[in-house]
Amino acid sequence: MACHSSEPNFLKNFQIPHYIIVPESKAENIEINCDAPMCPVLVFVNSKSGGQLGGDLLKTYRTLLNEKQVFDLGEEAPDKVLRRIYGNFEKLKLQGDQFAVKIMESLKLIVAGGDGTAGWLLGVVCDLKLSHPPPIATVPLGTGNNLPFSFGWGKKNPGTDQHSVESFLHQVLKAKEMKIDNWHILMRMRAPKQGSCDPIAPLELPHSLHAFHRVSETDELNMEGCHTFRGGFWNYFSMGMDAQISYAFHSERKLHPEKFKNQLVNQSTYAKLGCTQGWFLAPLFHPPSRNIAHIAKVKIMEAHGQWKDLHIPSSIRSIVCLNLPSFSGGLNPWGTPNGKKRHERGLTPPFVDDGLLEVVGFRDAWHGLALLAPNGHGRRLAQAHRIRFEFHKGAADHTYMRIDGEPWKQPLPVDDDTVVVEISHLGQVNMLATRDCRSKSVHDDPSTPHHDDVEEVDSEDEDSITDEFRKFGAADTFKIPDEVDLSHLS
After folding, report:
1. What is the pLDDT averaged over residues 33-60?
2. Rounded distance, CA 18 to CA 27, Å?
3. Structure pTM?
């Protein structure tokens, strides 16, 4: 492959030679003085996301780039791809191939799919602990698209034609790198006296949460007589009525997948379910026994210190632990606390790399609609380095939970046992962000403007009625089972 550095060809910035991607192929005779591509990329597409869009996008990328650097996640898992390619990088490095070294050091990843698909790839990169972990750009192909929206890639499904793809690649070329916190979630429950716990019927866990014995039989966090699950997330963990709506949506989509081929239709269906499930009339449809304070004791650790109890107001029906400033399709439940709250309560803006989760509570959908108003936010409960939920026997026999858009119906104790959910900081991965992204880093220049930098107007009582209407892996931890329908990873 001869050097054509003088040839004005935009796509050359992204293309990777065949011999680097396919280890068994013959090494190409690349001139020593030939510049490596400025922005070599590996592209992962969930061809089942976004209806027909995923398949169309796959074809366009394969037409514009070396087709061997574009992967269909329905055919090959990302951990296998990255293990193979990075293994080849190391082999070529030992052979003195400086061109391959340059490719490895400047490599970037593009993932097209829903938040579940993007989280899958992030988990793989985190678990593989690569010598040069590549930063990741996300193409929004799901329903909520919180991850792409948080880093400036938009939330609407993109065009799949050549012009749209080249426009996206142009953004990738100019994108900046940002760190993002990775959160580990552990769930432990007493093993049933009879029957199996693989899975616990009727428990349908999200793909990123798996039983320990699938990970390691000797895991030190396992406990005798209990079944323990763990996984990870980047955007949020939520519990309560918002997760109940999400569960109803996913259940409906499993029954009638043919009705969920369009992003606008999906979003309108979601809104309708919010009404039929009683989220807008929560005091009538949602019994107090399911309110967060009635079913769980919550403890937080603000820094590397001691656990302390977190008071949850009795009216809170939904609690969200946020890492990114985007929830439910782009809303920001934490907002930007004003100077008084920062001083009195020690609150900060929602940085994505500060090792803290923002814990927000909602009473009902009307409270949530406050997010649509200027400076609107939910009930700020805490910022925590770790958070722990303890569920004991009570009036409710189940609740609903979700991780990064994937919900499940969680059974609660019926005897004198305890269900524990604990979330803790695990590490960080590299993301690609556009210059005007809404996510903030603790390392940002204070003079850099952000979309959400306008402080809220101070309010003495966040629960007041007037305020309510004024504001609204590579490791098995992250591995997606072979039998999973990837169209549900949105």
Report:
1. 88
2. 9
3. 0.79
CB 388 within 8 A of CB 306: no
Q: Is the pLDDT of residue 84 over 50?
A: yes
- Where do we find the tokens 């919550």? 298
The domains spanning 11-23+35-178 and 182-429 adopt the same CATH topology: no
What pLDDT, in 10s, does the model give residues 142-201? 877 888 989 999 988 889 999 999 999 999 999 999 999 999 998 888 765 555 545 454
Nearest CA-CA partner of 302 in 352, 377, 355, 341: 355
Answer yes or no: is pLDDT of 473 > 60.
no
Those residues whose C-beta lies under 8 Å from the C-beta of residue 350, and which sit 6 or more positions away, are 322, 324, 325, 332, 334, 358, 440
Cis amide leading into 288 (omega within 30): no
Residue 20 or 223, more confident: 20
pLDDT in tens, 376-399: 567 889 999 999 999 888 767 788
- CATH for 182-429? 2.60.200
Residue 203 in tokens? 């428990």
Domain extent listing, the chain = 11-23+35-178, 182-429
> Cα-flanking dihedrals φ and ψ of residue 130, to 5°?
-70, 155
DSSP state of 256: -
Q: What is the predicted pLDDT for the residue at 461?
A: 38
Quickly list DSSP for 63-131.
Answer: HHS-GGGEEETTTS-HHHHHHHHHHHHHHHHHTT-HHHHHHHHH-EEEEEE-HHHHHHHHHHHHHHT-S
The residue to which tokens 């193979």 are assigned: 84
Question: Into which CATH architecture does domain 11-23+35-178 fall?
Answer: 3-Layer(aba) Sandwich (3.40)
Contact 160, 419 (CB under 8 A): no
Residues 6+ apart with CB under 8 A from 327: 146, 235, 236, 238, 320, 333
